[in-house]
Amino acid sequence: MRFSLFIHMERWDDSISHEQHWQNLVELVQLAEAGGFSTVWIGEHHSMEYTVSPSPMPQLAYLAAKTSTIRLGSGTIIAPFWHPVRAAGEIALLDVLSGGRAEVGIARGAYQFEFDRLMGGMPAADGGEYLRELVPAVQKLLQGDYEHEGKHWQFPVSTAVPKPIQAPTPPIWLAARSPETHDFAVANGCNVQVTPLMKDDREVEDLMNKFTTAVDAHPEVEKRPEIMVLRHTYLHSPDDPEGWKVGAAGINRFYRTFSSWAFGKKAPVNGFLDPTPEEKFADRPEFELESLHRNAMIGTPAEVTARIRSYEQMGYDEYSFWSDNSLSFEEKKASLQLFIDEVVPNFR
After folding, report:
1. In 122-152, which positions are buried (b, 16+ CB within 10 angstroms) versus exposed (e)?
2. Residue 106 and which of 169, 180, 309, 320 are 20 to 30 A apart at CA?
3. pTM of the model
């Protein structure tokens, strides 16, 4: 089992500058690298302060100069927002700048808020069409000359400039939930990223079953793709039996804010939206702190080790420590350090 860090700048008010948030992120990435993490993942979101990341590429390029071993992953770029030629060129450039450490995560997109602003109101669910067209085009552009005549993009013979160090391409990962996306990923030689979000470990097992079904359906793919599971993670000391409540409350706030962006009708103010009030979730047990304690990866090092061991036994190749949780930098750093000190060594 490998470990990776999934991270964004989170800004919940004006009390901390973007510059300070960025320096905090760099420090956490360097801590993860020193602790043996294999990869850092940074995604793409637009015009929302609680996930400050209009493009992962410049952030990862900066981190390339501040690190030496950790791999640098887009987790993920949103397929409809990227022209294949631009995507291939920026991926290859990141690989060159980092000495061959680029990883490429691609997704169809989720927030209708973003599609209303970047895609003229196109339904976010239609993003899957763009993903299925983008992925093979980028794969071919990274390897040489390629002409494309598709539904969403058309261009004459082009290629990625520069060319990536990793051949034939840097590893490509697709965010998958449906059986169809799992199947497309495996058929195209891509690895898979999954997240159970607020659901329990039965969802983790179900996602693995979808992946296994896709692998079994494609015996022509000689090398089995890899699969990564992403979970909100918070560790507390066994000396503080109530310490889990801090993590659960932070993740509750994160998902109530996610709900405001994904389903709310209020317009943001200068990039901020308040979390949906708790009373709106009175009939949603998954938002209760005790439920989040059970379902998110919250617990003592021993408890977290046991659950991750079960993921390893299911067949997962990578566990990604999702640090976005609305908590302070100091709380995040303490949790990550505890994970490094008392969980990571159990898997060496």
Report:
1. bebeebbbbbbbbbbbbbbbbbeebebeeeb
2. 309
3. 0.97
